[in-house]
Amino acid sequence: MLRLEDVSASYRGLKALQGVSLSVAKGEIVAVVGANGAGKSTLLKAIAGQVATEGLIELDGKSLARVPAHEITRSGVGLVPEGRRLFPRLSVEDNLRLGAYAKRGTPDRFKPLDLVFSLFPRLQERLAQRAETLSGGEQQMLAIGRALMTQPRLLMLDEPSQGIMPKLVDDILAAVTRIRDLGVTVLLVEQRLAEALEIADRAYVLQTGRIVMSGRADEIAADSGVRRAYLGM
């Protein structure tokens, strides 16, 4: 579904990606792991059209080069950014409905609400609440739900467990697995590396903007060098 070949990108004047090549097949969860500052967030922004890039980025064989970010969203790429970036003073319902803006003009643009509420029943209970009043875990549920409202075929998640109480992290990651099982391909950047590798099919290790290892997630999790460098084990 997604292919990157020799992709480089600069962010805020720094070379954040250097010759990155990776692929994501339909129906996979692929994790990108690495230390802080490795370029993981820039990678997702590059795919989403939010930073200038060099090299090849293709979705279903079609180049995303010079495609505006909103058109990439309309083509089926959803991004849950680091920090969530909700509209804090708007209600849960308004945040979700704004997620469907990319599908404006289509009669079924609000259809994903049923999926969102099945994944995250708490959101349905809090429709009238302002986003800023939700807990960190609930805000992350809302950010994922808003991305699902774009009806993505590829969902990219940037640190979905960040700032969430540990007891809710398992719920979020279980929802990611269920999203994949419902037919949405997932590209996951996650600070909780052991948990990310547990739910992923394959993984790439990113270091200072370069891919230094790739393979099956269980093989990477078992690699002693990765465990020492990134898992603290």
Secondary-structure blueprint of this entry?
Blueprint: E1 2-11, E2 14-24, E3 29-33, H1 40-47, E4 53-59, E5 62-63, H2 69-74, E6 77-80, H3 92-99, H4 112-119, H5 121-125, H6 136-148, E7 154-158, H7 166-181, E8 185-189, H8 193-199, E9 202-207, E10 210-216, H9 217-222, H10 224-230
Helix pairs in contact: 3-6, 4-6
Main traits of this protein?
single chain; 233 residues; alpha/beta; Rossmann fold; 6-stranded mixed β-sheet; 4-stranded antiparallel β-sheet; 10 helices; 27% strand
Describe the model:
- With 233 residues, the chain is an alpha/beta fold.
- The protein has one domain: 3-Layer(aba) Sandwich (Rossmann fold), CATH 3.40.50.
- It has helices at residues 40-47, 69-74, 92-99, 112-119, 121-125, 136-148, 166-181, 193-199, 217-222, 224-230; strands spanning 2-11, 14-24, 29-33, 53-59, 62-63, 77-80, 154-158, 185-189, 202-207, 210-216.
- Helix 3 runs parallel beside helix 6 (136-148) and helix 4 runs antiparallel to helix 6.
- The longest helix is centred in the last third of the chain and has 16 residues, at 166-181.
- The model has no long low-confidence stretch (mean pLDDT 89).
Provide a compact summary of the structure:
With 233 residues, the protein is of the alpha/beta class. It has helices at 40-47, 69-74, 92-99, 112-119, 121-125, 136-148, 166-181, 193-199, 217-222, 224-230, and strands at residues 2-11, 14-24, 29-33, 53-59, 62-63, 77-80, 154-158, 185-189, 202-207, 210-216. Strand 1 and strand 2 form a beta hairpin.
